[in-house]
Amino acid sequence: MKKNLLMKAVLAVTLFCIFLPMGVVLLWSITERWPWPGLLPESYSLRTVKELLFGSAKLPQLLCSSIFLALTVALLGTAIGILTARATELYHFPGKKLVHLASFLPLLVPGTVFAMGIQITLIRLGLSDTISGVVIVHLIAAVPYCITIMTDVTRAVGDKLEQQAMVLGADPLRAFFQVTVPSLLPGILSSMSMGFILSYSQYFTTLMVGGGRIKTIALVLVPYIQSGDRALSAVYSVAFVGSALAVFFVFETVIHVYQKRGESR
Amino acid sequence: MKRQTTIFLLLLPFLAVTGIVLVSIWNVLVQSLGYIPAFGLTKPTLDYYIQVFSRADFLSAVWVSVRIALWSAVFSVCLGVLLAMALIKCRKTRGGMLYAVRLPILVPHAVVAVFVIQILSQTGLAARFAHALGFLEDYSAFPQLLFTPSYLGTILAYLWKEIPFVAYFVLAFMSSISDTLGEAAENLGASSLRSFWEVTLPLSVPVISRAGLIIFIFAFGGYELPLLLGSTLPKALSVQTYLVYMSPDLLQRPLAMAMNGVVLLLSAGMALAYSMVIYRLNRKVGGVK
Q1: Of A119, A166, A105, residue with least CA distance to B31
Q2: Which of A7, A173, A232 to probe the B interface (max B CBs under 10 A)?
Q3: Which member of A25, A87, A102 has the closest CB to residue B114?
Q4: How many other β-carbons are positioned within 10 Å of the β-carbon of residue B154?
Q5: Considering its fold, how many domains does chain A have in total?
Q6: What is the chain A residue with the closest CA to B31?
Q7: Strand runs (DSSP E) across B52-204, as ranges?
Q8: B4 touches chain A (CB under 8 A)
Q9: Closest in B20, B83, B132 to A136, CB measured
């Protein structure tokens, strides 16, 4: 009994530590003046928020392009995850262990080292300073997670139902899309979430390969933090986290609606 | 034949990704040996590695990064496992609580830097509370936690993100062990603490150490957090390396790559240590069978 109390305390402290900074940033984003040593802001205003939303900073466009980039990476990463998982889980071939090991390789090479190493190749291929180049380097960061997630789901789902569908006359593509994909869907969405967030929060690789020409919200936020502008960095942070949460909300809703539909059938 | 083609096609995108990573590693190693024909450097040499190790700023940067990575990994693993255990014991392995624990995983590192500054800087919320409670006269009396050579701010920022990451990463595995073998041990009379310590924890070592390895390597090579929350001197390895890499003097390039080469070797060393732990563990568990 006493132990459970301790465990409950751990959870309470965790919740406090998670939500306190979020609350503070939210407060800072609508603060006009918050001088030392006040515990709460002296005056509030929506000026910074309005300026960023409707002014020359073009925050909405920035958010849209960052989200679009991250969704592209999430989609490609998940597709690679699905294909790789099918190969390793549904087939036997020599070197399977090697594929498993190699799928962790990007996690073992720090992003900074990878970006500096690949830059010369991307320049040669004409991919430096382009969206495609940035997608490629973000993809490297996302793929290990996508593969791990898709491997777990593929192992659980297997291909028995897909085989059944083919025995009943469906062609392989149709069997895959109409039978297997729906059962993989929860995994697909959690792999998309992981891919999305990994791309969305990349800073160094975007800076390096985008050459400053590809702007994402992470790239815009960092200089404000460096300059010590608390109000502006707070508004950008809220926009950053808020938009990511909005995307996740959509993902979760899709799963939810889908599972409801599955139950009512 | 057809089956082989299918397997090959399925693996093709993965092979492309792996190829890109290998090309990058190759580029780092080749350039670190001073082979960059575009800059007129064509004679492979180990000079740059020797030079790098004689630079004081490099050695202190290695030390800074190793310390950040080590503390971040050790504390997030210990506290993350504790959090996972709390979630399991309080039967909160799904639903609202889990969403809350997942939140920090979704928050980008740059935003975590904002959090840390707004709470722990000398005029941050913690200092304001200390003032309100009468512990300090002025903000200058609040200890400098950020932008110092101790890199405490950077480590705390990593912990905020990685403790929940570890908890989430190990949760599914640990809760399945705890619900089956852990329960069995308790039914046979073990206390809840003992069944955790002697059954659930040892069996979860592989997944826990994998989480630790991921965090170590990530924090070791991480860029934004030491940049935003660390001191100007000594710099973290990634920040120092990028500075040398971007130097207008192109002949510094192989030096930067030698620094990257050292990072790669250290990361590979950590991965090797990890796989040896796993190998020994597998043999031990196999022996029990």
Answers
A1: A119
A2: A7
A3: A25
A4: 31
A5: 1
A6: A117
A7: none
A8: yes
A9: B20
Q: Å from A148 to nearest chain B CA?
A: 12
Which of A158, A137, A138 shows the shortest CA–CA distance to A88?
A: A158
Is A221 domain-assigned?
yes
Q: Is residue A40 part of a domain?
A: no
pLDDT at B117 over 70: yes
Residues of chain B contacting A221 with CB distance shorter than 8 Å: 110-111, 114
User: What pLDDT does B48 receive?
Assistant: 94
CATH of the domain at A238: 1.10.3720.10
Mean pLDDT of chain B: 91
Domain that holds residue A129: 58-264
Q: Which residues of chain A have pLDDT under 70?
A: 1-3, 262-265
A234/B118 CB distance under 8 A:
yes
**Contact at 8 Å (CB) between A134 and A200?**
no
Residue B94 burial class via C-beta count within 10 angstroms: exposed 0-12, middle 13-18, buried 19 and up = exposed
Spell out the residues 6+ positions from residue B178 whose beta carbon is closer than 8 angstroms to its own: B88, B195, B196, B200
Looking at this predicted complex, what is its ipTM? 0.92
Q: What is the rounded distance in angstroms from the CA atom of residue A253 to the CA atom of residue A243?
A: 15
Judged by CB atoms within 8 Å, which residues 54-113 of A form the interface with B? 79-80, 83-84, 86-87, 91, 93, 99, 102-103, 105-113
Residue A8, in any domain of the structure: no
Q: What is the pLDDT of residue B288?
A: 41
A51 domain-assigned: no
Indicate the Cα dihedral angle A6, A9, A11, A16, nearest 10°.
-160
Q: Kindly tell me if the per-residue pLDDT of B289 is higher than 50.
A: no
By the 8 A CB rule, do B182 and B121 touch?
Answer: no
Give me the phi and psi of A34, to 5 degrees please: -140, 75
Report the CATH superfamily, name and number, of domain B27-288: MetI-like (1.10.3720.10)
State pLDDT tens for residues A103-154: 989 999 999 999 999 999 999 999 999 999 999 999 999 999 999 999 999 9
Give the number of A-B residue pairs with CB atoms closer than 8 Å. 230
Selected residue of A1, A20, A73, A109 to mutate for chain B interface (largest B Cβ count, 10 A): A109
A86 to B10: CB separation less than 8 angstroms, yes or no: yes
Asked if A18's CB is within 8 angstroms of B217's CB, the reply is no
Amino acid letter, B202:
P
Local structure of A248: helix, strand or coil: helix
Residues of B with CB below 8 A from A240's CB? 108, 110-111
**Distances from the Cα of A188 to the Cα of A21, A53, A99, A157, B103, angstroms:** 31, 33, 20, 12, 19
Question: Quick check: A20 contacting B, CB < 8 Å?
Answer: yes
